[in-house]
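quick one, 575 residues, struct below
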Amino acid sequence: MCKTHYSKSVRPRVRGAQRVRRIMVDYIRNDSGSMSLFVSFLLLIMLAVGGLGVDVMRFERDRARLQSALDRAVLAAADLDQTQDPKAVVEDYLAKEGLLQNLKEVKVTPESAGQENTGPLGFRIVEARAESRFPTHFMHLSGVDFLTAQAGSIAEESIGEVEISLVLDVSGSMNNYNRLTNLKVAAKDFIDQMVQNTRDGDLSISIVPYATQVSVPETIFDQYKTEGTNDYSRCINFNGSDFNSTQMLTKDADSAPTFERTMHFDPWYTTDRRDNGKILGDGGGLPVCEAMANREIMAFQKDATTLKNYIQDFVARGNTSLDIGMKWGAAMLDPSFDPVVDAMVAANEVPNAFSDRPAAYNAGDTLKIIVLMTDGNNTSQYYIKNDYREGQSNIWWNEEEETYSVYNPDSGWYYWVDADDYNAYEWQDHPYGNGDSHWDCGSSGCWEDTNEPEDGEAVRLDYPELWARTSLWYNVKEHYYPWMNDSSARSEWVYGVRGYKNDNTKDSRTQAICDAAKDSNIIVYTIAFEAPPEGKSILEYCASSDSHYYDVDGLEIKDAFDSIGSSIRKLRLTQ
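---
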């Protein structure tokens, strides 16, 4: 049989606790005065702590109000768009809050105040300090009669270092409805806004006018490895993969690619539109790549007059290639473009202050901006097929007599193009100028020597030279239509010579280069200027956010550029 046993130490503990309770009860019964004193002491402590909390709460409330008012005041005063005296702005803000008496100091950098402070230095720093003293309600019992709340704020508005690529549509449709005129006004105002509000050397602006192609200056073009003969203009036919990156490696870089040089040719005009035999673009014609100063990229400039004069000289013609414009705009912000800038600095084409540009993508406060504008959407981009990019053509040219001779390889005869009468039907056994005299001939033979001397000398043109002198359609109309079937002539000498990238392909390429730019932390603003739905869709896609996309008509384009300029400026509370 089991029995329960208790530990010997349990009962003494119980008895000890009971003894303590009896002693406390006896104390309270026998010393009620001491207890009252104890309770009063506790209440006094609680009152002091509570009063301290009230004073601290009042202090924090007043300090927060003072700090908030001061923050708002310096932010408003630092805004470069306002032309009032920054000190007066701070004082006005605090006066409206009933806190002007607390303002101790306002410092503005640059030191000048008022409207002149918005000048070319392009930044404003406003520092303010305020102080408030108020009497305590409870803490004075412990000898603290006042608490002092101090507030300080520093606000700065500045652009800092910025690299901007303005990618502007100068295609033919920009001639409609004063679009080109409105663009010029808006873009020039943007230039003024950015230059006037930037410290010298902090801002560089490049302008990329684009139509069917983008023409580049010789110094830029020479930094790249290219293939294809062309002595008259400088453009590049990019491959699809080129649009997956903002990078464009120069010829001295490891793994530098070889780019295809655009032929100097006109795929549109059916008439010569120039003096016979002259180079396209020199008096007429419309080559896809135009060798004109106002069609070429202007790189890394800071002088407002230089930039604005360049914009004023814009002319509008050609198709629309958003993808190529965006490719060059992004490439000029990529660090791989640095050797190009160095070459342009050495050639005195770019200010020496920009010798270290483009900055690295992770270079602190440097902003990289693209402004992409169009009034249309991507249209066909033409190029010369490989079989017609080099080698000898069937066309001979007599410079002195301004006469073409067309060789027919099937018959071995030459068709002479009469400069005065292109419908004259005349075949000879040699090009005009390469014989002592010519005969009366037909397509099957000659029957009489005319004894008429031939002046000048005929030179066989290679394909690059032929396309530089005559449009594709002019070549067919004047050189082949008179003796070939029209359909066969077009098939062989227009559609067989030229290829093209259609709008869908170019849309995909535009999206790819926009993705690459945004992935590289380039900020992309886009402006749809009276653009059709297809163009708007591409620009919405390319913009860094919804707020970076502008859909405008008429004079609203100026508002878009003004808004972009204000957005670029960084307004920040620095302390």
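The longest strand covers residues 123-135.
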